[in-house]
Amino acid sequence: MLLACVGGYSPQVAAQSQSAGPVATASHFRPSGSMTVSRASQLAVGLSDGKVLVVGGLSTARSGIDRKKAEIYDPSSGTFHSTGSLVSIDQPGNAVLMPDGTVLVYGIRENWRSEDETTPEFVTEIFDPNSGKFSLAPAMNDDRARPSVTPLKDGSLLFAGGEPHDPRYQMGVSSTATAEVYEPKSRTFSKVASMHEQRTRHSATLLDDGAVLIAGGMNSNGFLGSADIYDPATRQFRVTGSMTTPRADHGAARLADGRVIIFGGATSGGGTVLATEVYDPKTGRFSPSGEMYDPGIGTYGRREIVSMRAASLQNGSILMMNVANVGGTLKIQRATYVEIYDPQTGRSKVIDGHFTPREWCSVTPLKNGDVLITGGEDPDKSSIVYSSAELYLP
Q1: Distance separating alpha carbons of residues 159 and 168, to the nearest angstrom
Q2: In the prediction, which pLDDT does 346 show?
Q3: How far apart are alpha carbons 199 and 224 in whole angstroms?
Q4: What backbone torsions phi and psi does residue 104 show, to the nearest 5 degrees?
Q5: Residue 211 CA, distance from chain mean position
Q6: pLDDT at position 137, please?
Q7: How far apart are CA 70 and CA 56, in angstroms?
Q8: Rounded to an integer, what distance in angstroms lies between the CA atom of residue 235 and that of residue 238?
Q9: Is the dihedral of CA 192, 194, 200, 206 positive or negative?
Q10: Of these four, 51, 80, 156, 391, which has the most CB atoms within 10 Å of its CB?
Q11: 169: Cβ–Cβ under 8 A, 6 or more apart, which residues?
Q12: 321, 311, 310: which is closest to 367 by C-alpha?
């Protein structure tokens, strides 16, 4: 399962009640084939047959590629090849694999600026791996940027919150409480009840019983600690316990025992939240679970994670690729490091190996347990965007 890693914050975890340093491990990285073009901030989704769809992104100097063109990674050969292009989406924002093997892509419609619109219009498309083509899907009832998109157990998709299509739109401040569900069989969107609070840059995690935990985020009142539970049977939200630390742009993953771990993210005061916490569906409460590892470099007591990409491994651990500002605001220094966090022990291990430092790359679990890492920018030279890819081998 790929973790939510928006907004550029990253986690590293040490022991809950101890200040444990990182434990170096052997390198598990191996170069793979390169993409057909250089990309950063692209979307990468594992397909039913084990291949990976890659679409969107930015290239050298934040331009230079056709973001509508997609490509496929084949693990059996370790190579990428071109596939179809998006029909109308110019800036893909979400891509989710559906039960029938197709992929729903959601993003900003092309040429919206040329039509004197004050805010973007959003479009959905369906990618069919059998034909290699994209086709337009019905429009959502409410345009929204940065919603959470959660596959439900019945095959439908829950779109919740985000930043609305509004003349008063302000990124990260404007937000909505509305939600709707996409039904693949009828290819329609239908509105459901709204959350109890407007929120954007939140996390959404499918629970064992089919409900969805919506946690944190932010709105015009600031960072949120509140959480909602969506019940697919009633299509309603109910309030549950609040996080111990309000945060946005954080990661979340369901653990093997059904609990949900929350890690990283931003909160008031700046920097990255170093504390982790766990939500227990049985009690409806969040509780502290540890402290993320801090490299301890820089002039300030906080480190600012500018890029975080994470993915769950088959053994339940979490792979994290982090780029941090470890200097002050007047002397920015970047540190790039990779670590493995074990939720069962509450400890992290820093990978001591040869890998390419990457900011805004994609990190995608493969069916064989490996993780595909593609593209991204050079952390020290944003004008350099990579087409290269590598594999993490657990």
Answers
A1: 22
A2: 73
A3: 8
A4: -90, 125
A5: 20
A6: 93
A7: 7
A8: 10
A9: negative
A10: 80
A11: 118, 119, 163
A12: 311
Contact call for residues 81 and 72 (beta carbons, < 8 A)? yes
Overall pTM > 0.85 = yes
Give residue 270's pLDDT: 72
pLDDT of residue 135: 96
Return d(Cα 327, Cα 334) in angstroms, integer: 7
pLDDT of residue 337: 80
HSE-up of residue 219 (Cα within 13 Å, Cβ side): 18
Q: How many CA within 13 A on the CB side of residue 387?
A: 13
Q: What is the pLDDT of residue 284?
A: 98
Separation in Å, CA 210 to CA 45, 130, 178, 195, 230: 22, 29, 20, 17, 9
Fold classification of 29-392 is Neuraminidase (2.120.10)
The one-letter code for the residue type at 84 is G
Q: Are strands 43-46 and 29-32 parallel, antiparallel or unpaired?
A: unpaired
Domain ranges, ordered by start, for the chain: 29-392
Chunked mean pLDDT (size 10), the chain, 394 residues: 37 26 60 94 96 87 71 98 94 91 91 58 93 94 90 96 67 81 94 96 97 96 96 98 95 93 85 85 93 50 71 89 69 74 76 83 96 92 88 92
Q: How far is the first Cα of the chain from the last one, in angstroms, to the nearest whole number?
A: 15
C-beta pairs of 185-192 under 8 Å, 24+ apart in sequence: 185/155, 187/137, 187/138, 188/138, 189/138, 189/139, 189/140, 189/141, 189/159, 190/141, 191/141, 191/142, 192/158, 192/230, 192/235, 192/236
Rounded CA-CA distance 229/253 in Å is 15
Q: Which two tokens stand for residue 353?
A: 């190996």
Here the tokens at position 12 are 């590293």
Q: Which two tokens stand for residue 365?
A: 């679990």
